[in-house]
Design brief:
Layout (H helix, E strand, L loop, with lengths): L11 E10 L2 E10 L4 E5 L6 H9 L6 E6 L2 E2 L5 H5 L2 E4 L11 H6 L11 H11 L15 H15 L7 E5 L7 H18 L2 E5 L3 H7 L2 E6 L2 E7 L5 H8 L3 E5 L5 E5 L2 H8 L1
Parallel strand pairs: 3-8, 3-9, 6-7, 7-8
Antiparallel strand pairs: 1-2, 1-4, 4-5, 9-10, 11-12
Helix pairs in contact: 4-5
Length: 271
Amino acid sequence: MLMKTLIKQDLLETRELATRLGRQSFGPFNIHIAPAEKVAILGPSGAGKSTLLKLMSRELAASGGSISFLSRPLASWSLAELSHLRAVLPQSTDVAFGLETDLVISLGRVSRPHDRDLTAIVHEAASMAHAAHLLNRRFDSLSGGEQARVQLARVFAQLWDKQNGLILVDEPLAALDPGLQFDLLDSLDAYASQRQHAIVAILHDINQAMQAFDRLLLVKNGQLVGDLPSNSAAVPALESLYDIALSCVHNTEGELLITPLRASSRNRKRA
């Protein structure tokens, strides 16, 4: 009897994907994202991280190569179709003046005309994003960190009742204090794991990327210079990426902690 081989379908695939902004070229990017993967994009400021994420989300048009979502050209998907399987959280999001937080969260489900569970999902998503106490508030009355939590709740609501979706986020934790960063990383992990959603996130915090993500995409000067697992073997590549020396220790829980070294310490390490 012939045995059938199961091939895991890529959720997102880019082949020789490229674009040009002014005089700078970005790409080519060859990337595969599988269901349930957690992938962090790292790189210096201006390296092209946001450009790569915008190409993945179709916000930015490619000048070459191809990108597919669930084995289908991304350009062939309607926005309504995409909204059921893919959520995007950019670094900054404009919201109409005076909108209430409940409505902002519910916008994640705007493509569902008969959404009987909308109210329950809005409240559950807000709770998961540690924003339940912010419901019924005006969005423009919130602090930057509070607004970030409401926007994350919108993403949670959007794919709440779906499986094998894709979440693209740009610096989702930047405006939050350290305690909330840990809480929301846990919430994001639990949310995606329960639904087998893949996450692609731009981060500046190396330790968050190493501890909470499976893979690292390293971007520098508009190029993908590394695609590797997030473990201690990635440290030399990270040093090259940021042109710094890194000190590594393990905390009492066995987690790898990475600290950039001052110039004098870097010189001693390299000597």
